[in-house]
Design a protein that fits this description.
- The complex is a heterodimer of chains A (307) and B (249).
- Chain A contains 14 helices and two strands, in the order ααααααβααααβαααα.
- Helices cover 76% and strands 1% of the residues of chain A.
- Chain A has a domain of 206 residues.
- Helix content of chain B is 38%, strand content 24%.
- In chain B, helix 3 packs across helix 4, helix 3 runs parallel beside helix 5 and helix 4 packs across helix 5.
- Chain B is built from ten helices and ten strands.
- Chain B is an alpha/beta fold and 249 residues long.
- The chains are: A mainly alpha (307), B alpha/beta (249).
- Chains A and B meet through helix 8, helix 9 and helix 10 of A and helix 2, helix 3 and helix 5 of B.
Chain lengths: 307, 249
Protein backbone atom coordinates (compact mmCIF):
# COMPACT_ATOMS: atom_id res chain seq x y z
CA UNK A 1 0.00 0.00 0.00
CA UNK A 2 1.26 3.49 -0.76
CA UNK A 3 0.36 5.75 2.11
CA UNK A 4 1.04 9.43 1.96
CA UNK A 5 3.70 9.01 4.60
CA UNK A 6 5.53 6.37 2.57
CA UNK A 7 5.32 8.54 -0.49
CA UNK A 8 6.93 11.43 1.36
CA UNK A 9 9.66 9.13 2.69
CA UNK A 10 10.28 7.82 -0.79
CA UNK A 11 10.48 11.38 -2.08
CA UNK A 12 13.07 12.29 0.55
CA UNK A 13 15.20 9.23 -0.26
CA UNK A 14 14.91 9.98 -3.97
CA UNK A 15 15.90 13.61 -3.51
CA UNK A 16 18.84 12.61 -1.32
CA UNK A 17 20.02 10.15 -3.97
CA UNK A 18 19.78 12.77 -6.70
CA UNK A 19 21.56 15.38 -4.60
CA UNK A 20 24.36 13.09 -3.40
CA UNK A 21 26.95 14.12 -6.03
CA UNK A 22 26.72 17.69 -4.67
CA UNK A 23 28.73 16.72 -1.61
CA UNK A 24 31.58 15.93 -3.95
CA UNK A 25 32.71 12.65 -2.39
CA UNK A 26 33.70 10.05 -4.95
CA UNK A 27 33.72 7.45 -2.20
CA UNK A 28 30.07 8.18 -1.41
CA UNK A 29 29.07 7.98 -5.06
CA UNK A 30 30.77 4.62 -5.50
CA UNK A 31 29.25 3.23 -2.33
CA UNK A 32 25.72 4.36 -3.10
CA UNK A 33 26.05 3.25 -6.69
CA UNK A 34 26.97 -0.24 -5.54
CA UNK A 35 24.10 -0.19 -3.04
CA UNK A 36 21.64 0.70 -5.80
CA UNK A 37 22.84 -2.18 -7.95
CA UNK A 38 22.54 -4.67 -5.13
CA UNK A 39 19.21 -3.20 -4.10
CA UNK A 40 17.92 -4.09 -7.56
CA UNK A 41 19.41 -7.57 -7.25
CA UNK A 42 17.74 -8.04 -3.84
CA UNK A 43 14.38 -6.71 -5.07
CA UNK A 44 14.49 -9.22 -7.91
CA UNK A 45 15.29 -12.01 -5.46
CA UNK A 46 12.34 -11.00 -3.31
CA UNK A 47 9.93 -11.62 -6.18
CA UNK A 48 10.75 -15.26 -5.56
CA UNK A 49 11.18 -15.35 -1.80
CA UNK A 50 8.81 -12.67 -0.55
CA UNK A 51 6.02 -12.89 -3.09
CA UNK A 52 6.31 -16.45 -4.38
CA UNK A 53 7.56 -18.15 -1.23
CA UNK A 54 10.23 -19.77 -3.41
CA UNK A 55 13.63 -20.22 -1.78
CA UNK A 56 16.27 -20.00 -4.48
CA UNK A 57 19.84 -20.83 -3.52
CA UNK A 58 21.08 -19.94 -6.96
CA UNK A 59 19.92 -16.45 -7.78
CA UNK A 60 23.49 -15.30 -8.41
CA UNK A 61 23.46 -17.33 -11.63
CA UNK A 62 21.26 -14.77 -13.39
CA UNK A 63 23.22 -11.86 -11.99
CA UNK A 64 26.37 -13.45 -13.41
CA UNK A 65 24.75 -14.33 -16.74
CA UNK A 66 23.65 -10.73 -17.17
CA UNK A 67 27.09 -9.51 -16.13
CA UNK A 68 29.01 -11.75 -18.54
CA UNK A 69 26.53 -11.24 -21.37
CA UNK A 70 26.86 -7.48 -21.12
CA UNK A 71 30.66 -7.68 -20.93
CA UNK A 72 31.00 -10.05 -23.88
CA UNK A 73 28.51 -8.29 -26.15
CA UNK A 74 30.00 -4.87 -25.48
CA UNK A 75 33.67 -5.81 -25.59
CA UNK A 76 34.15 -9.00 -27.60
CA UNK A 77 31.45 -8.28 -30.15
CA UNK A 78 31.49 -4.51 -29.93
CA UNK A 79 27.72 -4.15 -29.92
CA UNK A 80 26.20 -0.70 -29.45
CA UNK A 81 25.69 0.03 -25.77
CA UNK A 82 21.91 -0.05 -25.45
CA UNK A 83 21.63 -3.12 -27.66
CA UNK A 84 24.14 -4.99 -25.51
CA UNK A 85 22.53 -3.81 -22.30
CA UNK A 86 19.07 -4.90 -23.44
CA UNK A 87 20.31 -8.18 -24.91
CA UNK A 88 21.98 -9.05 -21.60
CA UNK A 89 18.59 -8.80 -19.89
CA UNK A 90 17.00 -10.96 -22.58
CA UNK A 91 19.74 -13.58 -22.27
CA UNK A 92 19.21 -13.69 -18.49
CA UNK A 93 15.49 -14.11 -19.06
CA UNK A 94 16.00 -16.98 -21.50
CA UNK A 95 18.42 -18.77 -19.18
CA UNK A 96 16.02 -18.29 -16.26
CA UNK A 97 13.21 -19.69 -18.39
CA UNK A 98 15.15 -22.82 -19.28
CA UNK A 99 16.49 -23.43 -15.77
CA UNK A 100 13.23 -22.40 -14.11
CA UNK A 101 11.29 -24.83 -16.29
CA UNK A 102 13.05 -27.68 -14.50
CA UNK A 103 13.19 -26.09 -11.05
CA UNK A 104 9.46 -25.38 -10.66
CA UNK A 105 8.72 -29.04 -11.31
CA UNK A 106 10.02 -29.61 -7.79
CA UNK A 107 8.86 -28.06 -4.54
CA UNK A 108 10.37 -26.87 -1.28
CA UNK A 109 13.89 -28.09 -0.48
CA UNK A 110 14.15 -30.00 -3.76
CA UNK A 111 13.39 -26.80 -5.64
CA UNK A 112 16.07 -25.01 -3.63
CA UNK A 113 18.64 -27.72 -4.25
CA UNK A 114 17.98 -27.69 -7.97
CA UNK A 115 18.40 -23.91 -8.16
CA UNK A 116 21.74 -24.34 -6.38
CA UNK A 117 22.83 -27.13 -8.69
CA UNK A 118 22.05 -25.09 -11.80
CA UNK A 119 23.80 -22.04 -10.36
CA UNK A 120 26.93 -24.07 -9.70
CA UNK A 121 26.69 -25.29 -13.27
CA UNK A 122 26.64 -21.67 -14.46
CA UNK A 123 29.65 -21.00 -12.27
CA UNK A 124 31.47 -24.01 -13.73
CA UNK A 125 30.81 -22.79 -17.26
CA UNK A 126 32.08 -19.31 -16.39
CA UNK A 127 35.15 -20.84 -14.77
CA UNK A 128 36.04 -23.24 -17.57
CA UNK A 129 34.99 -21.37 -20.71
CA UNK A 130 38.12 -19.28 -20.60
CA UNK A 131 37.98 -18.13 -24.23
CA UNK A 132 34.76 -16.24 -23.58
CA UNK A 133 34.69 -15.40 -19.88
CA UNK A 134 38.36 -15.18 -19.03
CA UNK A 135 37.89 -17.99 -16.52
CA UNK A 136 39.62 -17.56 -13.21
CA UNK A 137 41.34 -14.34 -14.26
CA UNK A 138 38.00 -12.74 -14.91
CA UNK A 139 36.75 -10.61 -17.77
CA UNK A 140 38.79 -7.46 -17.56
CA UNK A 141 38.59 -4.23 -19.51
CA UNK A 142 34.91 -4.01 -20.40
CA UNK A 143 34.35 -1.48 -23.18
CA UNK A 144 32.16 0.96 -21.28
CA UNK A 145 31.24 3.77 -23.71
CA UNK A 146 33.02 7.07 -23.05
CA UNK A 147 29.85 9.05 -22.41
CA UNK A 148 29.01 6.72 -19.53
CA UNK A 149 32.52 6.29 -18.20
CA UNK A 150 32.26 9.15 -15.71
CA UNK A 151 31.37 8.21 -12.11
CA UNK A 152 28.63 10.82 -11.71
CA UNK A 153 27.06 10.01 -15.07
CA UNK A 154 27.10 6.32 -14.39
CA UNK A 155 25.62 7.02 -10.96
CA UNK A 156 22.65 8.82 -12.53
CA UNK A 157 22.34 6.13 -15.18
CA UNK A 158 22.11 3.56 -12.38
CA UNK A 159 19.43 5.58 -10.60
CA UNK A 160 17.33 5.72 -13.76
CA UNK A 161 17.66 2.02 -14.52
CA UNK A 162 17.09 0.87 -10.93
CA UNK A 163 14.12 3.20 -10.42
CA UNK A 164 12.56 2.05 -13.67
CA UNK A 165 13.05 -1.63 -12.82
CA UNK A 166 11.75 -1.12 -9.27
CA UNK A 167 8.69 0.66 -10.62
CA UNK A 168 8.00 -2.19 -13.06
CA UNK A 169 8.41 -4.76 -10.28
CA UNK A 170 6.12 -2.74 -8.04
CA UNK A 171 3.49 -2.78 -10.76
CA UNK A 172 3.96 -6.51 -11.21
CA UNK A 173 3.59 -7.46 -7.54
CA UNK A 174 0.41 -5.42 -7.38
CA UNK A 175 -1.00 -6.79 -10.62
CA UNK A 176 -3.52 -9.57 -11.09
CA UNK A 177 -0.52 -11.82 -11.60
CA UNK A 178 1.10 -10.59 -8.38
CA UNK A 179 -2.09 -11.37 -6.47
CA UNK A 180 -2.16 -14.85 -7.90
CA UNK A 181 1.51 -15.39 -7.07
CA UNK A 182 0.83 -14.49 -3.43
CA UNK A 183 -2.10 -16.91 -3.42
CA UNK A 184 0.17 -19.74 -4.59
CA UNK A 185 2.55 -18.86 -1.76
CA UNK A 186 -0.21 -18.80 0.84
CA UNK A 187 -1.88 -22.04 -0.19
CA UNK A 188 -0.60 -23.85 -3.23
CA UNK A 189 -3.27 -26.53 -3.07
CA UNK A 190 -6.18 -24.10 -2.87
CA UNK A 191 -4.69 -22.10 -5.74
CA UNK A 192 -4.66 -25.21 -7.91
CA UNK A 193 -8.30 -25.77 -7.09
CA UNK A 194 -9.36 -22.33 -8.25
CA UNK A 195 -7.85 -23.24 -11.60
CA UNK A 196 -4.37 -21.75 -11.26
CA UNK A 197 -1.50 -23.53 -13.00
CA UNK A 198 0.85 -23.04 -10.06
CA UNK A 199 3.99 -24.18 -11.86
CA UNK A 200 3.45 -21.71 -14.67
CA UNK A 201 2.84 -18.89 -12.21
CA UNK A 202 6.09 -19.83 -10.46
CA UNK A 203 7.96 -20.10 -13.75
CA UNK A 204 6.92 -16.57 -14.66
CA UNK A 205 8.19 -15.36 -11.27
CA UNK A 206 11.46 -17.17 -11.90
CA UNK A 207 11.87 -15.56 -15.31
CA UNK A 208 11.02 -12.08 -14.03
CA UNK A 209 13.39 -12.43 -11.07
CA UNK A 210 16.13 -13.72 -13.37
CA UNK A 211 15.66 -10.87 -15.82
CA UNK A 212 15.95 -8.13 -13.21
CA UNK A 213 18.90 -9.93 -11.61
CA UNK A 214 20.50 -9.90 -15.06
CA UNK A 215 19.99 -6.15 -15.33
CA UNK A 216 21.65 -5.73 -11.93
CA UNK A 217 24.52 -7.91 -13.15
CA UNK A 218 24.94 -5.78 -16.28
CA UNK A 219 25.10 -2.65 -14.17
CA UNK A 220 27.71 -4.27 -11.95
CA UNK A 221 29.84 -5.09 -14.99
CA UNK A 222 29.71 -1.48 -16.16
CA UNK A 223 30.39 -0.27 -12.63
CA UNK A 224 33.53 -2.41 -12.22
CA UNK A 225 34.65 -2.54 -15.87
CA UNK A 226 35.12 -6.23 -15.19
CA UNK A 227 33.38 -9.46 -14.22
CA UNK A 228 34.80 -12.13 -11.98
CA UNK A 229 33.70 -15.70 -11.68
CA UNK A 230 32.92 -15.15 -7.99
CA UNK A 231 29.74 -13.33 -8.98
CA UNK A 232 28.28 -16.72 -9.93
CA UNK A 233 29.55 -18.52 -6.83
CA UNK A 234 26.97 -19.67 -4.29
CA UNK A 235 28.09 -17.17 -1.65
CA UNK A 236 26.73 -14.45 -3.92
CA UNK A 237 23.35 -16.20 -3.82
CA UNK A 238 23.61 -16.41 -0.06
CA UNK A 239 24.47 -12.72 0.15
CA UNK A 240 21.37 -11.61 -1.72
CA UNK A 241 19.30 -13.86 0.52
CA UNK A 242 20.89 -12.29 3.61
CA UNK A 243 20.16 -8.82 2.26
CA UNK A 244 16.52 -9.69 1.71
CA UNK A 245 16.00 -11.28 5.11
CA UNK A 246 17.91 -8.52 6.88
CA UNK A 247 15.73 -5.87 5.27
CA UNK A 248 12.51 -7.86 5.43
CA UNK A 249 10.93 -10.06 2.80
CA UNK A 250 7.40 -9.07 3.74
CA UNK A 251 7.72 -5.59 2.26
CA UNK A 252 8.53 -4.47 -1.25
CA UNK A 253 11.48 -2.21 -0.40
CA UNK A 254 12.75 -4.20 2.59
CA UNK A 255 15.39 -6.06 0.56
CA UNK A 256 16.72 -2.75 -0.81
CA UNK A 257 17.14 -1.51 2.76
CA UNK A 258 18.86 -4.80 3.56
CA UNK A 259 21.27 -4.32 0.67
CA UNK A 260 22.12 -0.82 1.88
CA UNK A 261 22.59 -1.97 5.47
CA UNK A 262 24.79 -4.89 4.55
CA UNK A 263 27.04 -2.95 2.19
CA UNK A 264 27.44 0.02 4.54
CA UNK A 265 28.26 -2.24 7.47
CA UNK A 266 30.64 -4.21 5.29
CA UNK A 267 32.43 -1.05 4.21
CA UNK A 268 32.81 0.42 7.68
CA UNK A 269 33.35 -2.65 9.78
CA UNK A 270 36.03 -4.10 7.49
CA UNK A 271 37.95 -0.86 8.02
CA UNK A 272 38.60 -1.61 11.65
CA UNK A 273 38.39 -5.37 11.92
CA UNK A 274 39.10 -8.42 9.81
CA UNK A 275 36.36 -10.27 11.66
CA UNK A 276 33.58 -8.79 9.55
CA UNK A 277 31.90 -12.18 8.95
CA UNK A 278 31.63 -12.65 12.72
CA UNK A 279 29.89 -9.32 13.08
CA UNK A 280 27.65 -10.12 10.17
CA UNK A 281 26.64 -13.37 11.84
CA UNK A 282 25.85 -11.61 15.11
CA UNK A 283 23.80 -8.96 13.31
CA UNK A 284 21.88 -11.61 11.42
CA UNK A 285 21.18 -13.58 14.58
CA UNK A 286 19.93 -10.43 16.29
CA UNK A 287 17.65 -9.62 13.37
CA UNK A 288 16.26 -13.14 13.16
CA UNK A 289 15.54 -13.26 16.89
CA UNK A 290 14.37 -9.75 17.57
CA UNK A 291 12.99 -8.51 14.24
CA UNK A 292 11.91 -11.63 12.38
CA UNK A 293 10.21 -9.46 9.78
CA UNK A 294 13.46 -7.65 9.05
CA UNK A 295 14.42 -4.03 9.52
CA UNK A 296 11.64 -2.74 7.31
CA UNK A 297 9.05 -4.94 8.98
CA UNK A 298 10.26 -3.68 12.36
CA UNK A 299 10.08 -0.06 11.23
CA UNK A 300 6.56 -0.33 9.86
CA UNK A 301 5.35 -2.08 13.02
CA UNK A 302 6.82 0.62 15.22
CA UNK A 303 5.04 3.20 13.12
CA UNK A 304 1.70 1.42 13.51
CA UNK A 305 2.13 1.26 17.26
CA UNK A 306 2.92 4.95 17.40
CA UNK A 307 -0.18 5.96 15.50
CA UNK B 1 -23.05 -34.76 -17.19
CA UNK B 2 -20.61 -36.74 -15.09
CA UNK B 3 -19.99 -40.39 -15.80
CA UNK B 4 -17.79 -42.39 -13.49
CA UNK B 5 -16.86 -45.88 -14.63
CA UNK B 6 -15.27 -48.56 -12.50
CA UNK B 7 -13.26 -46.06 -10.46
CA UNK B 8 -10.78 -47.66 -8.09
CA UNK B 9 -8.01 -46.45 -5.82
CA UNK B 10 -5.44 -48.71 -4.31
CA UNK B 11 -2.98 -47.23 -1.80
CA UNK B 12 -0.16 -49.80 -2.03
CA UNK B 13 -2.33 -52.70 -1.00
CA UNK B 14 -5.20 -50.92 0.69
CA UNK B 15 -8.22 -50.79 -1.59
CA UNK B 16 -9.75 -47.44 -0.64
CA UNK B 17 -12.20 -47.37 -3.55
CA UNK B 18 -13.42 -50.27 -5.60
CA UNK B 19 -15.44 -50.45 -8.80
CA UNK B 20 -17.39 -47.22 -8.40
CA UNK B 21 -19.95 -46.53 -11.12
CA UNK B 22 -22.04 -43.41 -10.96
CA UNK B 23 -23.77 -41.11 -13.39
CA UNK B 24 -24.97 -37.61 -12.63
CA UNK B 25 -27.60 -35.77 -14.65
CA UNK B 26 -27.46 -32.02 -15.13
CA UNK B 27 -29.04 -30.15 -12.23
CA UNK B 28 -29.01 -33.16 -9.97
CA UNK B 29 -28.22 -32.80 -6.27
CA UNK B 30 -26.51 -35.99 -5.37
CA UNK B 31 -25.32 -36.98 -1.91
CA UNK B 32 -22.69 -39.56 -1.05
CA UNK B 33 -23.49 -40.90 2.36
CA UNK B 34 -21.00 -42.88 4.34
CA UNK B 35 -19.36 -43.03 7.74
CA UNK B 36 -15.87 -41.73 8.38
CA UNK B 37 -13.32 -43.87 6.59
CA UNK B 38 -15.73 -45.07 3.93
CA UNK B 39 -13.63 -43.40 1.23
CA UNK B 40 -15.65 -40.25 0.57
CA UNK B 41 -12.73 -37.83 0.50
CA UNK B 42 -10.60 -40.25 -1.52
CA UNK B 43 -13.47 -40.46 -3.98
CA UNK B 44 -13.51 -36.66 -4.36
CA UNK B 45 -9.74 -36.48 -4.62
CA UNK B 46 -9.86 -38.99 -7.48
CA UNK B 47 -12.51 -36.99 -9.30
CA UNK B 48 -10.79 -33.63 -8.97
CA UNK B 49 -7.22 -34.55 -9.89
CA UNK B 50 -5.76 -34.43 -6.41
CA UNK B 51 -5.19 -38.18 -6.68
CA UNK B 52 -4.66 -40.29 -9.77
CA UNK B 53 -7.02 -43.25 -9.48
CA UNK B 54 -5.47 -46.67 -10.05
CA UNK B 55 -8.52 -47.90 -11.99
CA UNK B 56 -11.36 -46.56 -14.02
CA UNK B 57 -12.13 -43.44 -15.94
CA UNK B 58 -14.32 -40.38 -15.48
CA UNK B 59 -15.97 -38.39 -18.23
CA UNK B 60 -17.35 -34.91 -17.76
CA UNK B 61 -19.65 -33.52 -20.44
CA UNK B 62 -18.51 -36.36 -22.67
CA UNK B 63 -14.79 -35.68 -22.24
CA UNK B 64 -12.34 -37.68 -20.20
CA UNK B 65 -11.04 -35.82 -17.14
CA UNK B 66 -9.13 -38.64 -15.45
CA UNK B 67 -5.44 -37.78 -15.42
CA UNK B 68 -5.87 -34.02 -15.77
CA UNK B 69 -4.29 -31.69 -13.21
CA UNK B 70 -6.59 -30.06 -10.63
CA UNK B 71 -6.34 -26.66 -12.32
CA UNK B 72 -7.36 -28.11 -15.71
CA UNK B 73 -10.34 -29.86 -14.15
CA UNK B 74 -11.42 -26.63 -12.47
CA UNK B 75 -11.18 -24.87 -15.81
CA UNK B 76 -13.50 -27.48 -17.31
CA UNK B 77 -16.15 -26.35 -14.83
CA UNK B 78 -15.78 -28.53 -11.75
CA UNK B 79 -15.07 -26.76 -8.47
CA UNK B 80 -14.79 -28.23 -5.02
CA UNK B 81 -14.67 -27.40 -1.36
CA UNK B 82 -12.68 -29.32 1.20
CA UNK B 83 -13.63 -31.13 4.35
CA UNK B 84 -10.74 -29.58 6.20
CA UNK B 85 -10.77 -25.82 5.75
CA UNK B 86 -8.66 -24.90 2.74
CA UNK B 87 -8.45 -21.14 2.30
CA UNK B 88 -5.71 -18.50 2.29
CA UNK B 89 -5.63 -17.92 6.06
CA UNK B 90 -3.41 -14.83 6.00
CA UNK B 91 -5.26 -12.99 3.25
CA UNK B 92 -8.41 -11.00 3.85
CA UNK B 93 -11.80 -12.56 3.20
CA UNK B 94 -12.21 -10.19 0.28
CA UNK B 95 -8.89 -11.20 -1.27
CA UNK B 96 -9.68 -14.88 -0.85
CA UNK B 97 -12.63 -14.49 -3.18
CA UNK B 98 -11.05 -11.87 -5.42
CA UNK B 99 -8.12 -14.07 -6.36
CA UNK B 100 -10.49 -16.91 -7.24
CA UNK B 101 -12.32 -14.55 -9.59
CA UNK B 102 -9.03 -13.39 -11.12
CA UNK B 103 -8.21 -17.03 -11.81
CA UNK B 104 -11.66 -17.76 -13.17
CA UNK B 105 -11.54 -14.78 -15.53
CA UNK B 106 -8.11 -15.90 -16.79
CA UNK B 107 -6.40 -12.73 -15.61
CA UNK B 108 -3.75 -14.54 -13.61
CA UNK B 109 -0.93 -13.89 -16.07
CA UNK B 110 -1.76 -10.23 -16.47
CA UNK B 111 1.29 -8.33 -15.22
CA UNK B 112 -0.08 -4.85 -15.72
CA UNK B 113 -3.64 -4.56 -14.47
CA UNK B 114 -3.65 -3.70 -10.76
CA UNK B 115 -5.07 -6.72 -8.95
CA UNK B 116 -6.74 -4.86 -6.10
CA UNK B 117 -9.07 -3.02 -8.45
CA UNK B 118 -10.30 -6.11 -10.27
CA UNK B 119 -13.75 -7.66 -9.85
CA UNK B 120 -14.59 -5.68 -6.73
CA UNK B 121 -18.31 -5.71 -7.47
CA UNK B 122 -18.34 -9.41 -8.27
CA UNK B 123 -16.39 -10.15 -5.08
CA UNK B 124 -18.81 -8.09 -3.00
CA UNK B 125 -21.75 -9.89 -4.58
CA UNK B 126 -20.21 -13.26 -3.88
CA UNK B 127 -19.62 -12.34 -0.24
CA UNK B 128 -23.19 -11.16 0.03
CA UNK B 129 -24.36 -14.49 -1.35
CA UNK B 130 -22.67 -16.40 1.47
CA UNK B 131 -23.45 -13.74 4.10
CA UNK B 132 -19.90 -12.57 4.66
CA UNK B 133 -20.29 -8.92 3.65
CA UNK B 134 -19.46 -7.62 7.12
CA UNK B 135 -16.36 -9.81 7.36
CA UNK B 136 -14.86 -8.66 4.03
CA UNK B 137 -11.79 -7.02 5.56
CA UNK B 138 -11.12 -9.59 8.24
CA UNK B 139 -8.17 -11.95 8.07
CA UNK B 140 -9.69 -15.17 6.79
CA UNK B 141 -7.89 -17.52 9.15
CA UNK B 142 -9.06 -15.65 12.23
CA UNK B 143 -12.78 -16.08 11.60
CA UNK B 144 -14.96 -18.68 13.28
CA UNK B 145 -14.98 -22.17 11.84
CA UNK B 146 -18.47 -21.81 10.42
CA UNK B 147 -17.58 -18.59 8.63
CA UNK B 148 -14.45 -20.12 7.18
CA UNK B 149 -16.66 -22.86 5.78
CA UNK B 150 -18.88 -20.21 4.19
CA UNK B 151 -15.78 -18.59 2.69
CA UNK B 152 -14.70 -21.96 1.36
CA UNK B 153 -18.04 -22.17 -0.41
CA UNK B 154 -17.63 -18.66 -1.83
CA UNK B 155 -14.18 -19.55 -3.20
CA UNK B 156 -15.55 -22.67 -4.88
CA UNK B 157 -18.48 -20.75 -6.35
CA UNK B 158 -16.15 -18.07 -7.69
CA UNK B 159 -14.82 -20.57 -10.21
CA UNK B 160 -18.34 -20.47 -11.70
CA UNK B 161 -18.63 -24.22 -11.84
CA UNK B 162 -21.37 -26.20 -13.51
CA UNK B 163 -20.60 -29.07 -11.19
CA UNK B 164 -19.85 -28.30 -7.56
CA UNK B 165 -18.31 -30.89 -5.29
CA UNK B 166 -18.68 -30.25 -1.59
CA UNK B 167 -16.76 -32.46 0.79
CA UNK B 168 -18.72 -32.61 4.05
CA UNK B 169 -19.93 -29.02 3.83
CA UNK B 170 -21.32 -29.12 7.36
CA UNK B 171 -18.56 -31.06 9.12
CA UNK B 172 -17.79 -29.56 12.50
CA UNK B 173 -20.76 -27.20 12.50
CA UNK B 174 -23.32 -26.80 15.24
CA UNK B 175 -26.84 -28.09 14.44
CA UNK B 176 -28.04 -24.54 13.83
CA UNK B 177 -25.08 -23.68 11.58
CA UNK B 178 -25.65 -26.95 9.76
CA UNK B 179 -29.27 -26.23 8.92
CA UNK B 180 -28.47 -22.64 7.91
CA UNK B 181 -25.68 -23.59 5.61
CA UNK B 182 -27.64 -26.43 4.07
CA UNK B 183 -30.47 -24.05 3.31
CA UNK B 184 -27.94 -21.67 1.78
CA UNK B 185 -26.29 -24.36 -0.34
CA UNK B 186 -29.64 -25.65 -1.59
CA UNK B 187 -30.74 -22.14 -2.49
CA UNK B 188 -27.52 -21.28 -4.31
CA UNK B 189 -27.53 -24.56 -6.20
CA UNK B 190 -31.10 -23.99 -7.41
CA UNK B 191 -30.51 -20.36 -8.27
CA UNK B 192 -27.34 -21.04 -10.24
CA UNK B 193 -28.64 -24.30 -11.73
CA UNK B 194 -25.66 -26.15 -10.31
CA UNK B 195 -25.16 -29.83 -10.39
CA UNK B 196 -24.19 -30.74 -6.88
CA UNK B 197 -22.26 -33.72 -5.60
CA UNK B 198 -21.60 -33.70 -1.90
CA UNK B 199 -20.43 -36.10 0.74
CA UNK B 200 -22.11 -36.19 4.08
CA UNK B 201 -22.32 -38.42 7.08
CA UNK B 202 -25.45 -36.79 8.46
CA UNK B 203 -28.71 -38.33 7.19
CA UNK B 204 -30.79 -35.25 7.91
CA UNK B 205 -28.60 -33.05 5.76
CA UNK B 206 -28.86 -35.52 2.92
CA UNK B 207 -32.63 -35.69 3.05
CA UNK B 208 -32.88 -31.92 3.23
CA UNK B 209 -31.30 -31.19 -0.15
CA UNK B 210 -30.49 -34.32 -2.16
CA UNK B 211 -32.60 -35.54 -5.11
CA UNK B 212 -30.59 -38.70 -5.33
CA UNK B 213 -28.05 -40.32 -3.14
CA UNK B 214 -25.55 -43.14 -2.95
CA UNK B 215 -24.18 -45.01 0.01
CA UNK B 216 -20.45 -45.60 0.21
CA UNK B 217 -19.34 -48.47 2.39
CA UNK B 218 -15.77 -49.74 2.67
CA UNK B 219 -14.91 -48.09 -0.64
CA UNK B 220 -17.84 -49.49 -2.60
CA UNK B 221 -21.13 -47.94 -3.61
CA UNK B 222 -23.72 -50.31 -2.24
CA UNK B 223 -26.84 -48.42 -3.28
CA UNK B 224 -27.89 -45.53 -5.50
CA UNK B 225 -31.33 -44.02 -5.90
CA UNK B 226 -33.75 -41.49 -4.51
CA UNK B 227 -33.39 -40.91 -0.77
CA UNK B 228 -36.55 -42.92 -0.16
CA UNK B 229 -35.39 -45.82 -2.27
CA UNK B 230 -32.06 -45.89 -0.55
CA UNK B 231 -33.64 -45.64 2.86
CA UNK B 232 -35.68 -48.72 2.08
CA UNK B 233 -32.85 -50.68 0.50
CA UNK B 234 -32.38 -53.94 2.37
CA UNK B 235 -28.61 -53.95 2.33
CA UNK B 236 -28.36 -50.33 3.40
CA UNK B 237 -30.75 -50.94 6.26
CA UNK B 238 -28.81 -53.97 7.35
CA UNK B 239 -25.24 -52.59 7.29
CA UNK B 240 -25.73 -48.89 7.64
CA UNK B 241 -29.01 -47.81 9.10
CA UNK B 242 -29.75 -50.89 11.12
CA UNK B 243 -27.37 -51.63 13.87
CA UNK B 244 -25.32 -48.48 13.26
CA UNK B 245 -28.29 -46.16 13.20
CA UNK B 246 -26.64 -43.97 15.81
CA UNK B 247 -23.57 -43.40 13.69
CA UNK B 248 -25.68 -42.39 10.77
CA UNK B 249 -27.77 -39.85 12.56
Amino acid sequence: MITQRNLILLGIVGAALLALPLIGSLFAIYLVNEILIFALFALSFNLLLGYGGLISFGHAAYFAIGAYACAVLLTTFGWPFFLAFGAAAVISAVCAAVIGYFCVKLTEIYFSMLTLAFAQLVWAVAFKWIAVTGGDTGFIGVAVPDWLDVPVRFYYFTIVVVALCAWIMWRIVNSAYGFTLVATRENRNRAEFIGVDVKRIQLVAFILAGTFAGVAGSLFTLFNHSVFVESAWWTQSAEVMIMSILGGVGTFLGPALGAATLLILDRFITEWTVYWPTFLAIILLAVLFFFPEGLMGFASKRKKKGE
Amino acid sequence: MLKIENLGMNFSGFQALNGINLELQEGEKHAILGPNGAGKTTFFNCLTGQLYPTDGVTHYKGKKITGLTPSRIVNRGIARSFQRINIYPKLSVFENVQVALIADKKMMFNLFRPGAALFRDETARMLELVNLTDEADETAGLMSYGKQKQLELAIALSSEPDLLLLDEPTAGMSPQETMDSIALIGEIASKRKLTLLFTEHDMEVVFAIADRMSVLHHGELIATGSPDEVRNNEEVRRIYLGEHADDAA
